[in-house]
Amino acid sequence: xxxxxxxxxxxxxxxxxxxxxxxxxxxxxxxxxxxxxxxxxxxxxxxxxxxxxxxxxxxxxxxxxxxxxxxxxxxxxxxxxxxxxxxxxxxxxxxxxxxxxxxxxxxxxxxxxxxxxxxxxxxxxxxxxxxxxxxxxxxxxxxxxxxxxxxxxxxxxxxxxxxxxxxxxxxxxxxxxxxxxxxxxxxxxxxxxxxxxxxxxxxxxxxxxxxxxxxxxxxxxxxxxxxxxxxxxxxxxxxxxxxxxxxxxxxxxxxxxxxxxxxxxxxxxxxxxxxxxxxxxxxxxxxxxxxxxxxxxxxxxxxxxxxxxxxxxxxxxxxxxxxxxxxxxxxxxxxxxxxxxxxxxxxxxxxxxxxxxxxxxxxxxxxxxxxxxxxxxxxxxxxxxxxxxxxxxxxxxxxxxxxxxxxxxxxxxxxxxxxxxxxxxxxxxxxxxxxxxxxxxxxxxxxxxxxxxxxxxxxxxxxxxxxxx
Length: 469
Prior knowledge:
four-stranded antiparallel sheet
């Protein structure tokens, strides 16, 4: 007994030192990891992109004020209209602003007089999976009525309805990319979104969540499970396959083929709208015939944005950059563009007509030749002059009474790693100094991932290297 006590007494300093060292690893891990997490948060390439779209009428059967939702062809659901200022919205049908006075309260619009146009021009019903072009591959026992196809996949409809109700499009991407081995994937806000999901018709429980792995459809409970903000798959998705959790009423599994996957099965086929009355965001700024600078209401903007569509009344404006026909060699001062008007920039800096250059049709003559290899561009209708503040500069000022509005555009919504630096730290796939408990959790899988008979087994590899040494 005395020997045992002596052994314990001698081992106590070692235990204390090891305990202190292990405890110290936690603040050290935060010391090295939090700056990297902050850098990850501040890098816009790591942010979730969202798309603002004109909000279609949400309930076609409502005889009171018109309710507007978000059909959201860009993929992010924003069900609230409170972000829109009352004086900065336009009522449109398709690509045409409506000449009608209205009052906006939240997402409800009260018209001063009935519309002459119908609320919706209908297209065809969506086709059940298997009755048209091959739809998304399904697994996990996906029931009938979950996957449909657009009759004309060449053009996505502005809105999809089931009965009189607008279906909201939405999904959230997993933070990690599939590597062929990983089975756990982080989806920011998954637990909150799933907990908020509506219960089934019996009111007993919510329907199983639906995940898209590439264009394959997986159901919760068979293909995967939800553990907090993580999706845990029964088998590892194949390498580099995108993973999306459906958070709205539907999402496109494959845009090219027009494959639509609903969040809950439907016996009634959804219908696509060709044109629909919608509430669109107007650009903020004075339309007085002289002002050329306006701002969009969601920022920061995605600079290379294929979804951006800005209109002046019924005319869509072009924000495409035109390159000159001639090479910028540092000597030439005259350049030819495709169009005869537009904002001219040199290395992103707007040039002033009459000061920096003179125009003769589609030819531009500079006062001083641009430096060799300078980025010389012309923007026919508008230029996004400051993506951070959402500032848009028009080539020609809009006349008083004209309406400048956005049918759609994309912006950076939030960091995909989490809303706080600490959340981003925990979501990082690798850490310069990991927590001791993380190391302990991975020790057994590290040694047992491959059997001893496999040449990739760690113990076997260590013994092989040791023997060679």
